[in-house]
Sequence to fold (595 residues):
Amino acid sequence: MRKLFNVASKSLRDQRWQIVGYGLALLAMAALVVFIWPSYRTTVESIKLPQAMQAFLGSDLSYASAPGFVSAEFFSWIPVLLIVYAVVQGTGSIAGEEGSGTIDLLMAQPVARSTMVLQKCLAFCVGAVLVVALGFVGFALSIPFVSIDIGLADAAVASANLLPITLLFFTFSLWLGAVAANRGVAAGAAVAVATGTYFANSLASGVHEISGLRYASPFYYYGAGLPLVKGIDWPHVTLLFGVAVLFLVLALRAFERRDIAVGGVPSLRPRDLLRRVMG
Amino acid sequence: MVEEGIVSVPAIELRGVVKDYAQVRALRGIDLSVEAGQIFGFLGPNGAGKTTTIRLLLDLIRPTAGTAHVLGLDAQRESLEVRRRVGYLPGDLRLYEGMRGHDFLDLVDSFRPDKRDPAYRQRLLERLELDPSLTIRTLSKGNKQKMGLAQALMHRPELLVLDEPTSGLDPLIQLEVAQLLEEAVADGRSVFFSSHVLSEVERLSHTVAIIRSGSLVAVEDIARLKGRSVHILEVTFAEPPPADLFALPGVRELRRDGNTVHVQSRDSLDAVIKAIGHHQVVDLRTEQPSLEEIFLAYYSGTESEEEGDAEALQRS
Fold:
């Protein structure tokens, strides 16, 4: 046991304050959104938002309903917070340890590169589950005390639905780090893609001419607060999860085949990058 | 500790190892065999390829061409087994700054649970005068180096691969490290360490390999290298001797202070004695040549590039 999960447990220990921080942020936000719903309800029920505005809030649900409100105020933007956590951990797992130089001693131990990466992935999954679970605790501590048309089970399902997209951005940044061997470059690219796809989804859904763009965004498949009323959309979850696994496989492949960089940044010339992308 | 038969397998065997980085050829075909059961010094100026060679042994980087075997195992295909049996100290040592010493050593131990030996680890820490309860961030450079040495030594590996092991250590601890390496060898284990300091290699190792610009220049037994007759003479004449007095084969005039000339002679002293015999000699002293001088006498060659490297070695 000790040997099986030593990298994972170290990685989890390293993340402990982040888990607490992100978890408490989610907990507080969830509880706050639920608690303010009754006072907003009367105001909001009388408002009919323009469709574009509605779409920009990241959900097809009406803002005037409790699920719509919780979706817009919580589920539509909480992934952004979780993705920051995912990118920090994803780029840190390989490229970060190369940048700090600690990877030499780690990889001089009898542990396969793939095992190291998979253990760090496992640690992140545990961390993400804990963060999301703390978010659910926020719902559990508020929903029973407020008149709101959302059940605890709905909140649990929608909270769990945060995980696939978080995992996707983790493995995506892991892959970027494995290819670039440079944390700054990897994190920059990951944040650019996250931001781009986030706005692609929210803007495209309101503009007919480019509405097709949203299908290229993971945020579309995530669906914000929709699971509050419709439950889990399994095809979408499977797609997000599948792409996450694909990037994990690509990351393992890229890292397995290259030299471990230490002390200096390896070549970032497009040709060399491409060679590492292709393996 | 070490199984029968392992001793006959070379600790390290490199064949035609070439390593190219994006723009540079770091290793230009290294052939090297390191016998087990000895301390092997790997000497060369900074940037000669020492660290590249060492990182190849642990599969941290892969050779462009050639093969590397460690303890009879393929350094790439059987790397996990290699790493299980090797203790490694990186040249550019970076530790997990936020961890306490104990926790870090526990982490390293957790990779080889069958080789945990808390009593030995404790003795090691005492001998290195290292307090493992401190957070690594608070340690001085020398103490971090001790931490690096402790993690490499504590599981008593069959082979120690140490990149610049004494860097940053004070002389007393350097002696302790030398002692620890001697003990490892007495125990039937092997040590391969790099250094850019010739005197250190002379003091610690049994055999030395000299690398320069990615090529091996020489592999020599230290005792034999020292036994090579290089004579250093300090001759004081009554009158200034002719400038070309020591222009003889195998003889080099090192420097001149007035009537005193420092001469170095390879092999026999005969030519020097005959040459000075025609002049009035006031004083004649001989010096015990250091390994440095022997090395320079034999390997500084005639190429100017080689001279430059030899000087770099001497300076360091």
Q: What stands out?
A: The first helix of chain A runs from residue 6 to 14. Chain A has one domain: 6-278. DSSP finds 14 helices and no strands in chain A. The interface with chain B takes residues 2-3, 6, 10, 14, 100-102, 104-105, 107-112, 259-260, 262-263, 266-267, 269, 272 of chain A (CB under 8 Å).
